Amino acid sequence: MNKNGQPFDSGLAYHQEVKPKEGKGSPAVPPAAEAQEYKFIGKRTPRIDGDRIVTGRAKYTHDIVFENMLFGKILRSPHAAAEIVSLDLSAAKALPGVKAALQLKEGRVKWAGEQVAAVAAVDEETAEKALSLIKVEYKVLPHVLTQDKAAQDGAPQVQDSPNVQKLDDYSRGDTEKGFKEADVVLERTYRLAAEIHHPAETHASIAKWDEDRLTVYDSTQALFSVRDGLARNLNMPASKVRVIKQYMGGGFGSKLGLNDFTVAAALLARQAQKPVKITLTRRENAMCVGFRPTHIITVKAGAKKDGTLTALTMKNMTGGGVGRGDGVAEPFADLYKCPNVKTEEFSVFSNTCGSRAMRAPGHTQGTFALEGFMDELAAELGLDPLELRQKNYTTISESADRIPYSTKGLDQCYKLGAEKIDWSRRNKKPGEGQGRVRRGIGVASQIWWGAGVPGTLADIKIYRDGSVEAVCGTQDIGTGTRTHIAVVAAETLGLEPQDIAVRLGDTEYPWAPISGGSLTTPSVAPAVRDAALKAAEYLKKIAAEKLMCRAEDLVLENKKVTDKTSPDRSITLKDLAKTQPREAVFHGERSGMPATFAFNTFGAQFAEVEVDTETGRITVKKVVAAHEVGRIINVQTAESQVVGGITQGLSAALFEERILDETIGRAVNPNMHDYKIATSMDIPEIVPIFIPMADPRINNLGAKGLGEPPRIPASAAIANAVYNAIGVHPGEIPMTPARVLDALKRKEKRT
Amino acid sequence: MEKTQAKKKKPVSRRDFLKGLSGGAVGATIAARVLGQTKAPAQGQEVPVKIFTTKTITLTVNGKNYPLEVDPKTTLLEALRDKLGLTGTKKVCNRGECGGCTVLLDGKPVYSCMTLVVRADGHEVTTIEGLADGAKLHPVQAAFIEKDGYQCGFCTPGFIMASVALLKTNPAPTQEDIRAGLSGNLCRCGNYFKIYEAVASASEKMRKA
Question: In this predicted complex, what is the ipTM?
């Protein structure tokens, strides 16, 4: 945990983790960029575990129970800032059915919802009753909740250091000189509200001791981080901690590290000598496990008449509660070729829980501001927004020593996306349409990491009956990782995806990184491929002896090893495996990447909206999403990532906002009703397009990640479409009807 | 948070008590709050009065009868998950906001978190575990796999139950009908677009069958 008591720090820490790292893995094996027609890779494969999900047999952490299991509950601070004067557990402990109780906090509490004490009892009702018997005397202190108020002089100080903290700086060239060279200079400010992750399955952990060994079932995106974090917090060896997660009901970044209540569950379980389960309530989920930080982002740029950017500056003020907010500079530094760029970022502490990474942290917010700004600049210059983007296109990573991108298909995303939405239908001048309901079309682009982590491990095991197992300690967080593993293994070994027994979700399996940062597929799939290639080589070798032919003439397909020079000569995998003296295990590793190239994902989304200028209501009609994310492993699940990213982006653009009340010291909408989330009534037609472009250097499959890319430009593209419809950029999300009407009033005043 | 406050015992008036029994979604919340709690002793009263005890019911779930002794404030969701071990039905918001716990009560979709189990006494409950015919999936289940009508799968049982109910009353829904029919269910992964495709595909297959 960091100094703010947050187990996971969004923003910078996350970015360090998801940025490509070279060198760590084994030497690169040749990429699978060969002109080969795959049977499963790049095709549609339904999930191999779909039947478990649709029958309710898939066991999520919420669904797991053990004999004699106790139920833990956390007593949380009702105050946003207070000193704990005294805490008395005796009455709670005396309640029949209560088996363990702990004080978790002394001294100062800094947000409403912070852990104070915990109990474990025979059922949840008894545990809740026990919480009400814990006597806590607080000395209430002044608090401040919102970023705006916390940044003001004289605001109550949240941490030991001042509320406003320097987050990060970036600069290249000379922006002052660049502004002097400009024909047009424009400055705009954009604001973003706090989004709450609200995964369907609330955070939950079960802790179970066996002597000095601890097993934790945790609803997590990061099994190995939770394992190591538990070992550190409990002062025990990581080798004696095991973390398991088979199915998880969503996370979106809020489950990327160890949670403090999981440590509490382990301590309660040790005290009671029984397994303890803690399941957060929806309210706790809304208040205690993070949010996407708030932002005020001011963008200023200078450009020549033809659209060439001469200077670009950005100031980001971000509110991350007791933790740090998100840095948003990366799209500003790298999306466009501008010689003079300067960004300055500050984080503001306030008395809410710490923010956490949320699907493309920083990039999503930065892109809303940058891409909104590009459209406003295009209008100022009288240029087509797409033309302005193409004018400033770059094929090198401007911030990473100007090295070339290994692949960058953003130009093709612009081209194919524009064709599909029919870009010529947009208002040539924003807001030029007539009538009460106005139509508009907007575009926004995206850059993200998503290269994967060298050193990721996976095993392929060939049993003596010919059955095959693929093993990796990664997580399937709902993206279909099990199926991706099966597709790659089956493709390489000439089997069907359903033939592969996939084992994942357990720290006893080979190491894999967190499932965040769009890391999973480009880390895990190449490791599986590496192991499967080794297995294939071995199978060919033993088949060559059996068939008395050359191993290099053999191919694995249709569950057989066949001599391609004489196809009647073959042996089934089943018969071949029998000849092994024992089962065979092959270790695979995700290779390193050359340091001379930059590896990123790209995309462009085009949105079409209708805006009712009397009610301020926005209806999104259509979104075309073109993404370049390397080779697609499974089109079926890749499309779902795009559909989900756009839906979440729409939801944030139109509805989602945590509303804080300074008088009561907490959010007033910690549920799924007052906190608005898009429903089936709000969804447009969605058209996903994948640019067929396998990266020849990134890994042995040419695959990049896709989890975050579709989320990044979605809110921005919708806002730009609104701008195109009504002639004024709302400048703030969510674009509630009231904010749209305000924007229209601002426009009226201007003209 | 407010746990301590929320758990403070409040005297239960007869009026509140009757309101709590009146049924319906709102009734269920109120009832869940007041039933089964010990009435706080009023002034001059020495002995706390237990205002409700357990009730014996027969729950019929997926065609099987389960005699159950329940605390009357137990919701159908709690009974299914905690007493019968039918964990396919999920607890997502636990206050009637998201449809994650949707089951069929006499063929009609209900939020099981907002339905007291005593209300299901003598009625037919169908859960996600009861849809398939042995190994043969219900066409709606098969369509969700075919069209990838899920991501994390946690809201999926609720969506499938709502879809089954929709297709029962409207076997050939338009896309607008599907949207409206599923508007009581939230999918946080945001896979609605794929869910429409799944329901449309199931509708087509069921009509052909």
Answer: 0.96
Q: B192 CB near a chain A CB, below 8 Å?
A: yes
Nearest CA in chain A to B73: A125
- Distance linking the first and last C-alpha atoms of chain B: 54
| Of A684, A727, A720, nearest in space to A443 by CA | A720
Note the pLDDT of residue B48: 56
Give the 3-state secondary structure of residue A50: helix
Number of neighbours of residue A12 by Cβ within 10 angstroms: 17
Could you state, in chain order, the average pLDDT of each consecutive group of 10 residues for chain A (751 residues)? 38 62 47 66 97 98 98 98 98 98 98 98 97 98 98 98 97 98 98 98 98 98 98 98 98 97 98 98 98 98 98 98 98 98 98 98 98 98 98 96 96 98 98 97 98 97 98 98 98 98 98 97 98 98 96 97 95 96 97 96 98 98 98 98 98 98 97 97 98 96 98 98 98 98 95 76
Do A132 and B188 make contact, defined as CB atoms within 8 angstroms? no
Sheet containing A457-462: which strands, arranged edge to edge?
A500-503, A468-471, A457-462, A584-589
pLDDT top residue among B8 and B181: B181
The pLDDT assigned to A751 comes to 76
Cβ <8 Å between A63 and B145: no
- Containing H/E element for A576? helix A573-578
Q: How far apart are CA A473 and CA A514, in angstroms?
A: 10
Residue B46 confidence (pLDDT) = 56
Specify the range with the lowest mean pLDDT, choosing from A407-411, B48-52, B63-67: B48-52
| Chain B contact for A477 (CB, 8 A cutoff) | yes
Token pair of A35, please? 């002109």
pTM reported for the whole predicted model: 0.93
Nearest-Cα residue of chain A relative to residue B149: A640
Sign for the CA dihedral angle at B177, B178, B182, B183 comes to negative
Query: A201–B98: do the CB atoms touch at under 8 Å?
Result: no
B40 touches chain A (CB under 8 A): no
Instruction: Tell me phi and psi for residue A115, to 5 degrees.
Output: -65, 135
Taking CA atoms, what residue in B is nearest to A116?
B1
CA distance A403 to A668: 48
Binned at pLDDT 50, 70 and 90, residue B45 comes out as: low
Q: Using alpha carbons, select from A80, A202, A198, A145 the residue that is nearest to residue A671.
A: A198
Q: Identify from A43, A51, A53 which residue to disrupt to test chain B contact, counting B C-beta atoms within 10 A and taking the largest count.
A: A53
Answer whether B154 sits within 8 Å of A60, measured CB to CB.
yes
Q: Which of B7, B86, B188 sits opposite A677 (nearest CB)?
A: B188
- Is B166 in CB contact (< 8 Å) with chain A? no
Q: For residue A639, indicate whether it is catalytic.
A: no
Which residues lie below 8 Å from residue A476, measured CB to CB, with a gap of 6+? Answer: A247, A248, A482, A504, A505, A515
User: What is the distance in angstroms between the Cα of A461 and the nearest Cα belonging to chain B?
Assistant: 27
Q: Report the pLDDT value the prediction gives residue A12, as an integer from 0 to 100.
A: 44
Cis preceding linkage at A737, omega within 30: no
Residue of A114, A195, A708, A732 marked active site: A708
Q: Does A589 touch chain B (CB under 8 A)?
A: no
Amino acid letter for position B61: V
Distance CA A431, CA A743 (A): 12
pLDDT in tens, A288-326: 999 999 999 999 999 999 999 999 999 999 999 999 999
> Which pair of tokens denotes residue B200?
């449309």
**Residue with the two structure tokens 């059955």:** A467
Q: Does B157 touch chain A (CB under 8 A)?
A: yes
Alpha-helical (H) ranges within B11-132 are 14-21, 24-34, 76-78
Out of A51, A249, A644, name the one closest to residue B191 (CB).
Answer: A644
